[in-house]
Here is the input.
Amino acid sequence: MTELDFARVGDGMVSSSSTAQTIKLQINGAAHTLRIEPRVSLLDALREYLGLTGTKKGCNQGACGACTVLVDGERTLSCLGLAVQYEGAEIRTIEGLSVDGALHPMQAAFVEHDGFQCGYCTPGQICSAIGMIREFNSGLPSAVTDDVSASVVELSDEEIKERMSGNLCRCGAYVGICDAIREVLDSKVSQFEVAR
Amino acid sequence: MNNFAYSRAETVEGAISLLSRHANAKFLGGGTNLVDLMRENIEQPDALIDITRLPSAGINELPDGGISIDAAVRNSAVANHRLVRERYPVLSQAILFGASGQIRNMATTGGNLMQRTRCYYFYDESSHCNKRTPGSGCDAIGGFNRIHAILGASDSCIATHPSDMCVALAALDATVHVQSAGGERTIPFNAFHQLPGNTPHVETSLRPDELIMAIHLPPLAFAKTSRYRKVRDRASYAFALVSVAAALDTEGGAIRGIRLALGGVAHKPWRAYKTESAMIGARATRETFERAAEAELSDARGFVHNNFKIELARRTMVSVLVELADAGGVR
Here is the structure.
């Protein structure tokens, strides 16, 4: 059915063995074929198999957000996903945000506002911020939204902090991170530009 | 992590059939809990059956005015759905108070029900845990048990259920619709999760051959006036010490309808039936709310480090009820 080594076993399912299999992942606009075991996380596939080390391994248990990537535009923790689950999805990592050498507006804003010190959490923070703005544009409320039955019209600083709480920064660059996100929100950068 | 066979189900029948072919297979949703537990060697399935691409993954209005949420719908999609936000705001809120934006994008509705406790001793292979290794003992009793249960615990286990979403579902009288090769059945939400008793490794009434298909919410007009309040050690991205999901209906200052469930206090989302009984027909006053909270919490028992939860639960219940009464314009 696909480029997988999957064999059809009837009943409308595909099955595989636990041994390494060939899968195809779409990452930053390019197709990658790799041979991996099902237990390989998307994070390890990116870093160890494809050399895309921009995505960072922090806690490796879904607590820090350093491994955040965009899957079909939605922010996702690559440490808690199995690579084999993401066949057919469009994966975007920090390496895929710039266009022709020009920084993504969110990257430029992080530089401008010192949204980092050591930089280890930064790729995750930037991918998360891009996904967060996309969620806001879809109308998603948050835990600090007063009335979830009403539409959320403004992304206050309180809203930004709550929505970014899945990304930890041990250097404590949170003020710069919030300023960077605020600038992108206020800069009239088109939605397409931010979410691309 | 041990290796395992991975399969992607394309149909419900295929998923159920495949489950029956492995002695130790598990369904895989978003993976946010299961993959972590496998990495810690707590879960060691031989096979994972990916059910995130089954054909039905939507939220639909039911003929009776309730709604149906398919099991594979992501938590963020439930929280953002117009019908949920308008008719059951407590559910939208409860989801948004759980985990982080990234995890809510991954986690599924069915998976949320199946998540396992965050008890430290359950996660630590060198500790005794009746849930992980039946009969081995419980190191949480007499150990560091600040996050543990105050209601419904047993001598075998004092772990809590970690979900926020499920607390709202308990208050809303949801039903869980499951399917196996033998057919379909419906499980009332409050009969889905189990108290620990002397079998804390048995966490739900789901049978080994069953797949969760959907959650149904019955119509409840006064759920429009509903709230979720979560008390935790930091302002965001932490599990509940105590949480309250509640909906209140008053008329002329009298309580006509009340739903209340507690999170962070028991092995399952804890529907506070005694509180509800004490409130129906009474005046919607702080005194009533305090008496009603006490009716439930007189059964509560702390294990030293978590003694504070009893008073915290009482105050949180009363505070939420006062807020709901104010929102309804009645005191």
Q: What stands out?
A: The mean pLDDT of chain B is 97. Residues 287 and 318 of chain B are 9 Å apart (CA to CA). Chain B is about 30% helix and 20% strand.
